[in-house]
Design goal:
This protein is mostly beta strands. It has strands at residues 4-9, 17-21, 28-32, 38-42, 56-58, 61-63, 70-72, 88-94, 97-101. The chain has one domain (4-101): Rieske [2Fe-2S] iron-sulphur domain (Rieske Iron-sulfur Protein, 3-layer Sandwich). The structure holds FE2/S2 (inorganic) cluster.
């Protein structure tokens, strides 16, 4: 499984919370939804670079803490009418452990 790195246990990320993972590509925000799905994207809002990891997760989106843009967790795309995209990364859960793939 080249490129996959074990990050933490699922419990290390609060439901509707996030965790920041430092990488050579910049900080990556790992999100956990209320129903335990996981998503990852650059911790940088496509609007003006706000820290998405500090936003509020609701459903399949996160609201940027700076100006309130909603960013889709599945693809990093801003919800219309806003436009822009945060690069997303593959993430998976295996035996209660969270894995992240760099460079998708
Ligand atoms: S920086 Fe995210 S909404 Fe402006």
């Amino acid at each position: 499984m080249s490129g996959w790195i074990e990050i933490c246990a699922l419990e290390d990320i609060a439901p509707q919370g996030s965790r920041v993972v430092a990488s050579e590509q910049g900080d990556i925000a790992l999100f956990r939804t209320a129903d335990d799905r996981l998503f990852a994207m650059h911790d940088k809002c496509p609007h003006r670079g706000g820290p998405l990891s500090q936003g509020i997760v609701h459903g399949d989106t996160v609201s940027c803490p700076l100006h309130g843009w909603k960013i889709g967790l599945k693809d990093g795309e801003a919800v219309a009418p806003d436009q822009g995209c945060a690069k997303s990364f593959a993430v998976r859960l295996e035996d209660g452990r969270v894995w992240l793939k760099f460079g998708r």
